[in-house]
Design a protein that fits this description.
Elements lengths: L11 E5 L4 E5 L5 E3 L5 H7 L11 H14 L8 E5 L5 H8 L3 E6 L2 H11 L3 E3 L12 E7 L8 H11 E12 L4 H6 L14 E2 L2 H10 L2 E8 L2 E4 H8 L3 H13 L6 E4 L3 E8 L1
GO molecular function: methyltransferase activity
Protein name: Class I SAM-dependent methyltransferase
Pfam families: Methyltransf_23 (PF13489)
């Protein structure tokens, strides 16, 4: 990356990490992998088993928390699209609350799961602006998606096409300048998602991106996630001996399924189409 894709700044630095390198803009903070994974590598990542653990209780409660936030901004009489819906945790919460919903995911497996088990209209495959009619959607949610896509600018452009004037867009993504990223530096949890995560945003870079596409950013806040103790110890402790001992203690004390909300890693952005 010689020029920043977000702000066109030419002052790009390289961040050396154990498994990969990042090119980062010195102005808006946007960063991307110096080398994107191939299509073959990407296809290996998003197999059916990628979605299995996301149906756990902690992920379901995490989606409920997102819905409770989104619900403050939108009305029930419109159509809500969850883009990158996975196996439908968020859609389930919204449908149960009486909202008219539909979903989209790159995974045919995930889309079929949502259609079969939740009876929610869901499309899959490669997206383009013709997937939904122009100005047919009242609100779009896209949680932890933008960091995965090589063509994220086009995704935002599609959202603008599909949304009605005054429609809302909700995004979450890891914030490379979050408090925990600043403290942990190269050991930041956000860097452990390689090669799934290929883009890294800041609140400044996302604001520039959305405003350049005709959105008005209404809110940016620290977000986080709900996870069980077992998930945290399994995914965050890399030393296998320490991990095994910790998990044995958790299970002996029957604490493994306790869930907590951790306000770190992610940011939530709310934008409105002008």
């Amino acid at each position: 990356m010689t020029n920043c894709r977000i702000c066109n700044n030419t002052n790009i630095t390289t961040l050396e990490l154990p498994k990969f390198k990042l090119d980062q803009c010195s102005d808006c903070g946007y960063a991307q992998l110096s080398k994107y994974p191939s299509e073959e590598e990407v296809e290996k990542i998003y197999k059916d088993n990628y979605f299995e653990e996301k149906r756990g209780s902690d992920h379901i409660n995490d989606s409920k928390m997102k819905f409770e936030f989104v619900e403050k901004f939108i009305k029930k009489d419109g159509l809500l699209l969850d883009f990158g819906c996975g196996t439908g945790n968020f859609l389930k919460s919204a449908k149960e609350a009486g909202y008219n919903v539909c979903g989209f995911d790159v995974s045919e497996y995930a889309a079929e799961y949502v259609k079969t088990n939740l009876n929610i209209e869901t499309k899959s495959g490669k997206f383009n602006e013709d997937v939904y009619a122009q100005e047919s959607i009242d609100a779009v949610t896209s949680f932890d998606v933008i960091e995965h896509l090589t063509n994220f600018e086009y995704m935002v452009d599609c959202f603008k096409t599909w949304l009605k004037p005054g429609g809302y867009l909700f995004l979450t993504t890891p914030d490379i300048k979050s408090w925990d990223a600043v403290v942990l530096k190269k050991n930041w949890y956000g860097f452990q998602k390689y090669p799934e995560h290929i883009n890294f945003f800041t609140s400044k870079s996302l604001r520039i991106l959305l405003e350049s596409q005709g959105f008005k950013v209404e809110k940016v806040k620290v977000w986080g996630f709900v996870r069980s103790f077992e998930y945290i110890f399994t995914h965050w402790i890399k030393n296998s001996k320490v991990q095994n001992i910790s998990l044995k203690v958790l299970r002996a004390l029957h604490l493994q399924n306790i869930e907590i909300y951790i306000p770190m890693v992610d940011l939530m952005l709310v934008a409105k189409k002008d």
